[in-house]
Amino acid sequence: MNTEATAMQQSAEWGMLAIQSSFPRLKDRFLYEEHGERRIIFKFMLLLYNVRARRVGINQIRNTYMAYLNQDANEEFVMPLLNNE
Q1: Pair 22, 52: CB distance under 8 Å
Q2: Distance (Å, rounded) from C-alpha 19 to C-alpha 55?
Q3: pTM for the structure as a whole
Q4: By three-state DSSP, how is residue 84 classified?
Q5: 67-83 residues labelled b (16+ CB within 10 A) or e (exposed)
Q6: How many CB atoms lie within 10 A of CB 52?
Q7: Residue 85 pLDDT > 70
């Protein structure tokens, strides 16, 4: 259980670092916000990051966890339970 929690924390840190390193000039603070400009800029920033990750094809989280996401859950978990009966 501890290793799973560490893996989730590490993936969150990778994601945050990837976004921060993709947009190094966005370190300025939003001092004044009237109509939700900060929300719009953050959403736009995440959309740009997703476009870049898909076009370039390099994404640390996808490279680490995609093998597990492509596994068939039925073969991995259900079939051993059925075979034990």
Answers
A1: yes
A2: 15
A3: 0.53
A4: helix
A5: eeeeeeeeeeeeeeeee
A6: 15
A7: no
Helices (H) and strands (E) counted in the chain, each on its own, are 5, 0
Q: Is 36 left (phi over 0), alpha (psi -120 to 50) or beta?
A: left
Mean pLDDT of the chain: 76
Q: Could you give the C-alpha distances from 85 to 33, 57, 74, 79, 80, in angstroms and in order?
A: 62, 44, 16, 10, 9
Distance CA 84, CA 28 (A): 59
Tens-place pLDDT, residues 36-63:
888 888 888 888 888 887 888 777 667 7
User: Looking at this protein, which amino acid is placed at residue 53?
Assistant: A
